[in-house]
Amino acid sequence: GAGVSQSPSNKVTEKGKDVELRCDPISGHTALYWYRQRLGQGLEFLIYFQGNSAPDKSGLPSDRFSAERTGESVSTLTIQRTQQEDSAVYLCASSLSQGGSPLHFGNGTRLTVT
Amino acid sequence: DQQVKQNSPSLSVQEGRISILNCDYTNSMFDYFLWYKKYPAEGPTFLISISSIKDKNEDGRFTVFLNKSAKHLSLHIVPSQPGDSAVYFCAASGSNDYKLSFGAGTTVTVRA
To answer: Which of B5, B32, B99 is most worth mutating to test chain A (most A CB atoms within 10 A of its CB)?
Structure first.
């Protein structure tokens, strides 16, 4: 497709379960980002991938969160032992390069932890 | 630590009038600024940007103004249209930084 694709669009899970969120970036985009938006708040940076460089994980809120990216393609964000405070919209974005290139966002995955 | 602040959570404007959205930032290293627009259940979409070497950038009905000394930028939409009703996010980064810092957003409602 032409845009960033995320799946699932919605996910409801029980507290304590693990979830995996998927992102397909725009083809050719070397940079990939994960952000999350909690209700009524702005976008919070989670993690950044650029090519084959080591990812910037500085935004991950706890060690329950991890992400992987294979080359310059699909990325998965995994949340282990989910908590209610993890409920948010998780947004993936890609861009051509770092610095100065607008991010192109997917529609997000709305995660609800009950 | 909120480095980008949008102090007005909402704005209501009549169709045809001007919408003015404000954004303040605290990090003096920021030199690239963007506005994103977000509809419900969709991801944010890029609207307009400005680099610190400029104080104004215009694209159709959208104009962004930058006041570096005040660490303030604004987005003007004129004339406002019903389709402009959305959440607008201000974002900023440094030239050597890949991370965008976002504000909390301003919800714009354009009344017919």
So the answer is: B99
Per-residue pLDDT tens digits for A38-86: 988 889 999 999 888 889 999 999 999 999 998 778 999 999 999 999 9
State whether residue A107 sits within 8 Å of chain B by CB. yes
CB-CB under 8 Å, A48 with B99? yes
Label residue B37 left, alpha or beta by phi (over 0 means left) and psi (-120 to 50 means alpha). Answer: beta
DSSP states along B9-65: SEEEEETTS-EEEEEEE--TT--EEEEEEE-TTS--EEEEEEETT-SEEEETTEEEE
Tens of pLDDT, residue by residue over B63-94, are 999 999 999 999 999 999 999 999 999 999 98
Cβ-based contacts under 8 A for chains A and B:
60
Q: Name the closest residue on chain B to residue A33, using Cα atoms.
A: B99
Give per-residue pLDDT as tens, B52-64.
Answer: 999 999 999 999 9
